[in-house]
């Protein structure tokens, strides 16, 4: 089961700022544990608060996203805090998710919030990578007028595949912008359409967006709501298409394979 390790306090000892804006709430194990993510109205810093039960009473703990490190451990997400008393990182919470998709969405949401938290001093490069996923494609795309990195990840345990767009350069480099899960629809010959040397359209692409300024409608020029990927190079567009629609191997004619032997 999911666990919040604290240290915990009762509500009278700990409270949420009155001007806080709640972003989302997530419950675990039939509400035995709940998580609330909120933004402080004064400094706009994002926080996570856990509520758990002990001997029938509610107990709480909260930390800024800038104070927490995230890592995947098989089917769990681990959040660690720094203990000044012990001078080491300690497990703050361990969260189990029912599906890989839910885990991905929580992970990307947390990393995006931490990257955009002005209280964050730095993020380890390892925190941008969800452990257990294999990178099978990467290229630069022009996305809503910005340079983004498009990565295709495949999960080693579930074999699930997803598209992941991240900031290409600057202060927020590698921060998640959106992700989209590749479903069974990719098996259809009409799921992916190459409109030009640099542009590919995807049908029924559902984006989960982690950047409030991103306008995905600018990438849906088709009447059917197709999502456009505009690659920086022709080669990248071709490689992306062949990742899902591999080219047929060259055929060998029967004549070339059965030549009569000439005189010795």
What does the model show?
The chain is mainly beta. It folds into two domains: 1-129, PH-domain like; 132-247, Roll (PH-domain like), CATH 2.30.29. The chain is 12% helix and 40% strand. It is built from three helices and 16 strands. It has helices at residues 100-115, 234-244, 254-257; strands at residues 3-4, 21-28, 33-39, 46-54, 57-64, 68-73, 76-83, 88-96, 133-143, 146-155, 161-167, 176-182, 192-194, 199-202, 208-209, 227-230. The strands form four sheets. The protein has a five-stranded antiparallel sheet with strand order 9-10-11-12-15. The N and C termini lie far apart (78 Å).
Blueprint (SSEs and pairs):
Layout: E1 3-4, E2 21-28, E3 33-39, E4 46-54, E5 57-64, E6 68-73, E7 76-83, E8 88-96, H1 100-115, E9 133-143, E10 146-155, E11 161-167, E12 176-182, E13 192-194, E14 199-202, E15 208-209, E16 227-230, H2 234-244, H3 254-257
Antiparallel strand pairs: 1-8, 2-3, 3-4, 4-5, 6-7, 7-8, 9-10, 10-11, 11-12, 12-15, 13-14, 14-16
């Amino acid at each position: 089961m999911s666990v919040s390790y604290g240290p915990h306090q009762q509500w009278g000892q700990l409270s949420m700022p009155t001007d806080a804006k709640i972003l989302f709430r997530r419950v675990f194990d039939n509400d035995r544990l709940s998580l609330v993510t909120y933004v402080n109205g004064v400094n706009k810093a994002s926080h996570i608060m856990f509520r758990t039960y002990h001997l029938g009473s509610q107990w709480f703990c909260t930390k800024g996203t800038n104070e927490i490190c995230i890592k995947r451990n098989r089917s769990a997400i681990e959040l660690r805090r720094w203990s000044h008393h012990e001078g080491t990182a300690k497990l703050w919470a361990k969260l189990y998710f029912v599906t890989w998709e839910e885990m991905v969405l929580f992970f990307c949401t947390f990393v995006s919030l931490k990257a955009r938290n002005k209280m964050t001093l730095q993020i380890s490069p390892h925190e941008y990578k969800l452990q257990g996923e294999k990178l099978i494609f990467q290229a630069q795309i022009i996305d809503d007028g910005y340079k983004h990195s498009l990565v295709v990840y495949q999960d080693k345990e579930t074999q699930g595949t997803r598209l992941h767009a991240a900031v290409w350069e600057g202060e927020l480099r590698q921060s998640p912008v959106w992700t989209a899960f590749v479903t069974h629809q990719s098996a259809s010959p009409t799921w992916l359409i190459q409109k030009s040397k640099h542009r590919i359209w995807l049908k029924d692409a559902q984006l989960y967006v982690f950047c409030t300024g991103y306008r995905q409608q600018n990438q849906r020029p088709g009447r059917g709501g197709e999502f456009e990927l505009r690659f920086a190079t022709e080669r990248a567009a071709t490689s992306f298409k062949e990742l899902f629609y591999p080219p047929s191997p060259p055929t060998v004619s029967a004549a070339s394979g059965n030549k009569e032997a000439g005189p010795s």
